Amino acid sequence: MAELMIKNFDLSQTASSGQCFRMLPATETGVYTAVSGCRFLKLAQIGQCFHFFCPDDDMPFWNNYFDLDTDYTAFIDSIDPKDAYLLAAADFGSGIRILRQDPWEMIITFIISQQKTIPAIRSLIETLCRRYGSPLAQENQPESAGFFSFPSPEQLNLASLDDLLELKLGYRAKYIKSICTDACSGKLNLQYLHTLNHTEAMEYLMQFSGIGEKVASCICLYGLHHISAFPVDTWIKKILLREYAPGCRAAKKVPAARFYETLVRECFSRYQGYAGVMQQYMFFYERSRSSRK
């Protein structure tokens, strides 16, 4: 077990921020479980003190996974003092960190996420893991019993299109089957994907069936840790229109197809290189406000 003091990290906020679906609350208060690859973690929080229940050899992995070496205070301190909305969003969600997740898992996850609620996404992912992943039960981590790894391309490719349709994946089933075939054949080269910058990764990902701009942007932000990525979904569109469009002259002079792209570029240029962190604060804040109404 390792014990660390960490600022700007909150398990509940990070787990419910919409970027990960295999970090779940345990029965004990302030305790979460997380699965990434073939690793299992039990993690407890008391204030800024965190207890990592895992083998010592796994700590470098989890340190990287939770992005613990990055100074999120610096991101928050960089916010324009005139931007009352973003200041409030960052204050509310200051415990969120952009996780360094597996790109393959994020590809499948965000193909599934289209037109699905967070509970539905979690349920579908766990079903895929139970059916096609590997058991994680280990003697030195008895709590890992009942957990499964996320299936590799080869494991998931064992599922037929009919198998995937039976899981109620709907139109997403054909996209998942296609992307598995592409990954197993080498057409989708996951190692090559790691070498690309944000712009290159977006272009590469959108060549594949089922991956549009929004899904590609989520993969870049949450799977490749390109924290300049700024996914624009329904929640973010709502924020941009209400909080930023009225004062953005440039956005009024471009075609409709480039409206949100222009808004993001004009209003978040000062956060070049880490705009995705601001997006996460905004997304979490807006969704939380909506649920409290």
Keywords:
single chain; 293 residues; alpha+beta; Endonuclease III, domain 1; five-stranded antiparallel β-sheet; 15 helices; globular
Description:
This protein is α+β, with helices and mostly antiparallel strands and 293 residues long. Among the domains are: 101-224, Hypothetical protein, domain 2 (Endonuclease III, domain 1, Orthogonal Bundle); 229-292, no CATH class. The protein is 47% helix and 9% strand. A five-stranded antiparallel beta sheet has the order 1-5-4-3-2. Helix 4 packs across helix 15 (275-292).
Strand order of the largest sheet: 1-5-4-3-2
Gyration radius, in Å: 19 Å
Name of the CATH superfamily of the domain at 101-224: Hypothetical protein, domain 2
Oligomer: single chain
CATH-defined topology of the domain at 101-224: Endonuclease III, domain 1
Instruction: Assign the CATH architecture of the domain at 101-224.
Output: Orthogonal Bundle
Query: What portion of residues is helical?
Result: 40-55%
Mean pLDDT: 92
Instruction: Using the coordinates above, name the CATH class of the domain at 101-224.
Output: Mainly Alpha
E-strand count:
5
Judged by helices, strands and strand pairing, the structural class is alpha+beta
Strand and helix order: EHEEEEHHHHHHHHHHHHHH
Beta-strand fraction estimate? 5-15%
